[in-house]
Amino acid sequence: MEAARRNDAPVERLLALYRTMLRIRAFEEAAEAAQKSGEVRGAVHLSIGQEGVAAGVCANLAPTDLITSNHRGHGHTIAKGADPAAMMAELFGKATGTCGGKGGSMHIADFSVGMLGANGVVGAGMPIAVGAAHALKLTRRPGVVACFFGDGAINRGPFLEAINWARIYDLPVLFVCEDNGFAATTRTRQMSGGPGASARAESLGVPATGVNGNDVEAVDAATGRLVATIRAGGGPQFLHALTYRLMGHTASDAAPYRPAAEVEAKRADDPIARARARLAALDLPEAALDRLADEAYAELDRAVEAARAAPWPALDQAYADVLDLGAGTWR
Amino acid sequence: MAVTAGALTTYLDAARLALADEMRRDPLVWALGEDLGRGGVFGQYKGLVDEFGPERIADTPISEATIMGAAVGAALVGTRPVVEMRFSDFALCAVDELVNQAAKARYMFGGQARVPLVVRQPIGAWRSSAAQHSQSLEAWWVHVPGLAVVAPATPADNGGLLKSAIRSDDPVVFMEHKNLWPTSAELDREIAPVPLGKAAVVCAGSDVTLVTWSAMRFVCEAAVASARAAGISVELIDLRTLWPWDRDAVLGSVARTRRLVVAHEAVQVCGVGAELVAAAVEALGPGIAVRRLGAPRIPVAYASNLEAAYHVGADQILGALRALA
Q: CA spacing 20 to 30 A to A112: which of A8, A79, B177, B207?
């Protein structure tokens, strides 16, 4: 895994976070282009502008820790250590994809790095995350489960049920509310009673910490404290990361429901640009930072080429992994 | 535990003993649901917390979505949860978790993980429980790729099929009939696993094939006895597993009798009976005579005379057998 280590010098750590964000951005720009060209099909939900949350949180997770994600899950998956080439092949629907081409963007998963699946249903990863943590506790295995969800999920029942569940069983869960302000194409605040996500978590006895999700160092530092608390037996924690979705709900949503000036203002707070400015201020040479970006985009160029060249899944895979019982009785 | 197999054992206790056996056999098996520490709503878990402790017989909040969803997460990371839903009606609060998550995770993720869980959903009209505590929703789950569906009728089958369901790596919906809890039979000391996907031929016959499952088996037995008195030889098949259903047993029998009646408690429209009848006609030709008998497409009423209007009776089954024979 590419995760920065806590005892790294601050510059080294920020560089690692910066590199993770660049790799996510490169992946999603490539995914968007491939969606426009028709090579990637189905819904593609981009997290461009939100990379600070994925990178900052996952930098504090070990390979044996687990995550669940939502429909906007590329960033979480890359930050947790999945191979972008296998992920891109998955988006292309190819046999070499992380799920053999059977999941696509919305169901991307890589169990080999503890990534238990993106999800096509808002909030549905939350019960799964607390269940995974429940199993860790039941079987006396160490580990933390980070549960990524958006602000739209806070109005679904499983949000309440899962947070309550983590509290009453005292489970090692880090809830990460990645608050980009939009529930699909509607502003979440118009649809939410009361003071919102953190207050709801705290009303269930789970301490909430707010953070600027576009400040990757702040996310990293806050997560480091929360994960340490969880590992020490402190029970579930809630991280409320404020960020902004620079793209539409899906790659084909032009997001006409918000003023262009708002998006432009938010673009100035892009987490990658922010980290780069900070690195420059720490005397990192521009050329070195450019080289990191070039490497990230070159990695994705190779991933797209490989995905394009990869074979489609064999047709018998349509019938594989349904059910052992009654296998062969498809009609 | 107060009861051991080997004596007269109820349908309820057979499953309870089977679960205890499986929990002793495999430390990764655990149960979760509302009120399990108190024994469960019907006593199906009575005493288990004393032996296995509150971690493995887990009391949960009234949070069906998360009971089911947490079981999916716990199964994905290697445990084998037995999920209690109290009533199949309440499982409707957990449909996303069952249909979109449990049934699909293995497939969507390209076989990276399995979801070895059992979800117990008691079914059936019982003690004037009215519209929200009486449904038999097996056809919903049979329709969903990725789920197996079981509906036992006898104590031996309830215990034996539950053992097999727990050992299966597939998600299994396990539907026990509430009216059958107190029914009893002499069981072997050791409850033998009953294979999933295998029907039981209750009695052999040559004129008509009658297929059923769950509590309707006993209504059918009464109808078969009356038919026999009227000179009609009926082959009665208890399907036991509704998906995958035992095609060899059903179609083999219908190939001989050329007549098929399917009787079930659930609503007839789009019920499992429709599937069996269609499959038999497709496989064996248009010369097959068929009848479906299920409930009318009405909710279950509270008043006993109205509730009775929902039930398929032995006389209706006898009428169908006579009409075809």
A: A8
Domain span including residue A224 = 10-308
Distance, CA of B213 to CA of B154 (rounded, Å): 10
C-alpha B58/C-alpha B39 separation (Å) is 11
Instruction: Give the E-state strand segments of B188-275 in sequence order.
Output: 200-203, 208-212, 234-238, 241-243, 259-267
CATH code for the domain in which residue A234 is found? 3.40.50.970
List, for residues A272-323, the tens digit of each pLDDT value: 999 999 999 999 999 999 999 999 999 999 999 999 999 999 999 999 999 9
- Entry field: residues in chain A: 331
Nearest to B76 among A98, A132, A139 (CB): A132
The verdict on residue A116 lying in a domain is: yes
**A325: chain B residues, CB-CB within 8 Å:** 148, 168, 170, 172, 196-197, 241, 243-244
- Is A125 part of any domain? yes
* ipTM higher than the 0.85 cut: yes
For chain B, domains (ranges, CATH) are 8-186 (3.40.50.970), 200-324 (3.40.50.920)
Residue A83 within any structural domain of the chain: yes
Concatenating the DSSP letter of every residue in B120-175 gives: E--BS--TT--TTS----HHHHHTSTT-EEE---SHHHHHHHHHHHHH-SS-EEE-
Domain count, chain A: 1
**What letter would DSSP give residue A106?**
G
pLDDT under 50 in chain A at which residues?
Answer: 1-5
Nearest CA to CA, how far is B262 from chain A (Å)? Answer: 19
Give the closest-approach CA distance of A225 to chain B in angstroms: 25
Is some CB atom of chain B closer than 8 A to the CB atom of A209?
A: no
Per the confidence metrics, is the pTM higher than 0.80?
A: yes
The answer to the question of residue A146 being in a domain is yes
Distances (CA, A) of A329 to A54, B222, B241: 42, 33, 14
Which pLDDT does position B5 carry in this prediction?
62
CB B124 within 8 A of CB B309: no
